[in-house]
Amino acid sequence: MKLTLLGIAAAVALATPALAYDGTNCKAPGNCWEPKPDYPETVEGSKYDPQHDPAEVSKQGDSLAAMDERNQWRIWNMKQTGDFVYDVNKIPDYEEGSAPPSQ
């Protein structure tokens, strides 16, 4: 009996927060985000605008290009020697910023 009452009390306690929101302000089912009252319609130019530095944003693209270049050297070396070398500095004729020789 006590265990049943305890189980019912736990179920009611867990279900209560779900009943607190009535869903009247949802744009679509499950899309109930609402901005704070002082949040602007457009973020650009407001205090919420992150204003990313273009140089910082382009760093990821630059690092991906460098990764692709190193992978080209690794593949070229593997086709030439049959061995995969992870450290591109151990590949003969490797120069940073250059493409491997064409076949």
UniProtKB/TrEMBL annotation:
Q: What class of enzyme is it?
A: oxidoreductase
- Residue stretches of biased makeup (Basic and acidic residues): 35-56
The Swiss-Prot or TrEMBL record annotates one GO molecular function as:
alcohol dehydrogenase (NAD+) activity
Query: What are the annotated disulfide bridges?
Result: C26-C32
Keyword Iron carried by entry? no
Where does the signal sequence lie? Answer: 1-20
Q: Which InterPro entries match?
A: Meth_DH_bsu, Meth_DH_bsu_sf
EC annotation from Swiss-Prot or TrEMBL: 1.1.2.7
Provide an example Pfam family for this protein. Answer: MDH
Q: Which reaction does it catalyse?
A: 2 Fe(III)-[cytochrome cL] + a primary alcohol = 2 Fe(II)-[cytochrome cL] + an aldehyde + 2 H(+)
What keywords does the record list, in alphabetical order? Answer: Disulfide bond, Methanol utilization, Oxidoreductase, Signal
**Function statement:** Catalyzes the oxidation of primary alcohols including methanol.
Record's family? Belongs to the methanol dehydrogenase subunit 2 family.
Query: What protein is this chain from?
Result: Methanol dehydrogenase [cytochrome c] subunit 2
Organism from which the protein derives: Pontibaca methylaminivorans
